[in-house]
């Protein structure tokens, strides 16, 4: 029924990276704040369908559409083994593919590509934790949740919280609030039904 | 009421929720747009209902549609409604929708101010958090102004969750409403020491961003950040702080020095933290510190290189988070940063970088190309270009190929063809490049051809032969002209063949090639050059043929011209038409004369007489205005002004006339000047004989308008475009190799000789290490035309030099920086070394403290005269008068005295000296031989006014050999010829422990010993000077570490020996 490869699990190969490069540059378990400036973040599928977009710079809808179209084309045209960075207009584009989804960020020239890769990965990890083996369909059907997680993680293009635990705690508590609010309604619904 | 709620709930049952919408869209692949438009209609219905749950659901769906690219701005008000719901569930959806859909121009934002304020002060931290998050996306200047205070209060909220968000959002507020910065800053600074590390980092983040925009204001925070940097263990905070210091260091240089140590520690500590290392690179790039410790470079560098070269062999690519390409890219990036400061260390990795050119990834290839530009040297240029040429052949996609082409030309032509040793090779590279199909850079190649042919005289024969072949095979180039600009090359080819036609082997054939009917299909500006140069060629041919007894050949040529030229007379291009008809008439006339057996060749070639010399753009400025010439003065008396003024009131109807008749010199205003300048520039740009300052500005030829309109016969070429008969550039690589080997062999021979000499007690030791950069001598030499070297173009060379000399003298006198004072005997004696070029102190014993400074200058006009300018300064308190200057003549040098005076009489100094005053007097000496330095003893007698006593002052005048040298500029080609001539004797000297930069060293030699630098390549320079009697003195100065070796050649060995001794002395003193 679904044309997309939906149930493929996102492979997290982060630990391998630690082994390869021989160490960590992000102290684990410590409250850390990622420091960088992002212009926008796009999530799109291999078919070029946009799944998520977050803009941290004010642009008109027309411009946003144009940029999205152009970028999706450029990134999709690149072969799997090519490098994750490209220079585009006066921005640097950092992208990474997880299963069928591309995560793509634009940063300014002075910003660091590696941190951005780290951000992307951190976000994927968060999604994975929240949904439990996240797949593309999770993001499609719960896109507002994906946004909420992103908003807890990044604020105005700056990373505000890297501790996964903290982000998830905040999201869970907010969800709890939401459920509390929803409970009376479901009761009403039952009344409505009966 | 209850019923209404129940009704709403029932309605909701049938509403689509988000999941339904998404599913629906996926099921309607074919008619998605139609399906969505029905959905939007449903949403509109839902938004009209009172039930907030229904509304929220609708807004949620709209947010999804907005992402798919549908316009939802019409629902802005409904979004605000949902935002203001008291329930967190709906509020959350509302704020999300707002953050996605709203932008600065959304007018409903004004309505949200109070709602947001309420949410910010909500007791529920998540309400506040959601509001802050949303605000960060759609904050406007108005919102920023209204809410700045509320957010500022939140910065001291009890919950770190809120504090953190508030601090971060303050940055956005500052951007929108800068006035808030001042009141908020103290609190922000406080947050740097917040107990919660998250808040602290947020504050660092904001301040660093602010500082990046305007570093000056944040210098005062440097100590605080310094403390943070040494104490913090958080790499991410460190990265930001280092970045901040990168911005601060240019403003406060002392900071850079202070930072080296903590930074080195940091890098040691987190050796594997690549991010930090790259940031450190960035910092050093910004800081431009010379104290940039080599340890850091090599450290960072090795890390990068290891990963680059080894490509992580132990792990299969699939499991590697960072792919090899990523590391490669970063490695190249880092290298380009290091290249600026440490070019040598990058150069050793040339092969690695060349390998990157093979990479599939274009971003890596382009990075590698950038690097190559910076790392070429004489030694590796040919090799690199050869590799690039291979890539040009292989490259797919014209953009990358064009990029390669421009890079090849850039690399070769950088800094005045500094790295090209063999121009024949370069010409053949250019010719090979013309074979590229579909390139846009024809004009670039053309301008390079012109430039090289004009400036490198030795190459002209070869270039002309190549260009003739090109012209002969023009049809291959113009085959698919519509698509490519390569036919621009023919412009250069035609011009070179015409201008230097005397070098042509077979001019008649070339002339024939230039007048082929196919030429008419070329763009107009090229045709014009063809026609004009055909005429030049014609003149040369006539000249050649006229010597022969058989005049039919010459007449045949004329006939050919007459037959072929009408084709161009009909050209649609005005320029072509005009030139062609002009030349046609000329040839007809010549033919008539030829039939009468009149010799015309001389006159015809007079049309194109005169050699072309490269002229620097600012040359005219350097030509001094001859004395007595007032450029502003009228040559003819202008019509008197009063006349026209008188006329004006009378002649009402002819008012304009006098205005026209009078030159309007006074009315030239700024605008007019600018316009004229522009016009002149335009003119220069269109003049191929005019050489611009930089090669890039030589893009003289614009895209020919109307190329498309010229009918072109398409030739389908199945064979690769290879112009027959042209040599391949590759063979030059081989030739060059051979040449160098030969040179090396010669050098070795020399060395052996030297060694032998050494054994016999003479000669200097030579390094016999591997071939170094400076050993490669260019096969051809370029006339370097920079802005500073216009002499060649100037007829006023002599005068100018004189002027320069005078100026230099003046300067020297201002810079008396060798003041050795020491006391001797009873009185104070100041030993002055006035001639800066004279290193042995020239002693002036000054009793009543007049100070004397002296400058010895050779007289250019007269080979046997030396002018000594002496500055007398009265340092005493008394008035000095009746000064007499006398020198004891030697056999070799004599003071020139006025006629009639005896050989021992003194010369009266033509002035008196009040206390504290200085004045200059000049004395002329006649010198016979200049090869030896010598000292003359002299006395100065004077009367001290107050005491009326006769005082005497003894001094010594030291004529060094250097003072017989005159700074004479020399061109590298002349210099090479001079060295080749072989009648110079050589000698060498070695200076140890010279601890100064190479350019200082050169400047010192130039300044103290009157040399001029001919050419400088890295740590090697050739210098030249000339003595007043016309001896040439050539120096080759090389430096390695603290050792400087000077190889010198001169036609007078004694003079040379003395000059070298003096140079040695100069450096032994420092």
Task: Show the helix and strand layout.
The complex is a heterodimer of chains A (194) and B (1070).
Chain A lengths: L13 H8 L16 E8 L4 E6 L5 H16 L8 E4 L2 E8 L2 E7 L5 H19 L4 H6 L1 H11 E2 L2 E2 L4 H30 L1
Antiparallel strand pairs in A: 1-2, 1-5, 3-4, 4-5, 6-7
Helix pairs in contact in A: 5-6
Chain B lengths: L1 H13 L3 H10 L4 H17 L3 H16 L8 H8 L4 H14 L7 H12 L4 H14 L2 H14 L5 H17 L4 H11 L5 H17 L8 H10 L3 H14 L4 H17 L4 H14 L6 H17 L13 H18 L1 H5 L2 H7 L5 H14 L5 H14 L3 H20 L5 H11 L8 H14 L4 H13 L1 H5 L9 H12 L7 H8 L9 H23 L5 H13 L1 H4 L4 H22 L5 H6 L12 H4 L18 H10 L5 H6 L8 H16 L43 H31 L37 H18 L4 E3 L8 E3 L17 E9 L6 E10 L5 E8 L5 E3 L11 E2 L9 E10 L6 E11 L4 E11 L5 E2 L5 H10 L3 E7 L6 H12 L2 E6 L2 E8 L4 E9 L2 E8 L2 H16 L2
Antiparallel strand pairs in B: 1-2, 3-4, 4-8, 5-7, 5-9, 6-8, 9-10, 11-14, 12-16, 13-14, 14-15, 15-16
In short:
The complex is a heterodimer of chains A (194) and B (1070). Chain A is built from six helices and seven strands; from the N terminus they run αββαβββαααββα.
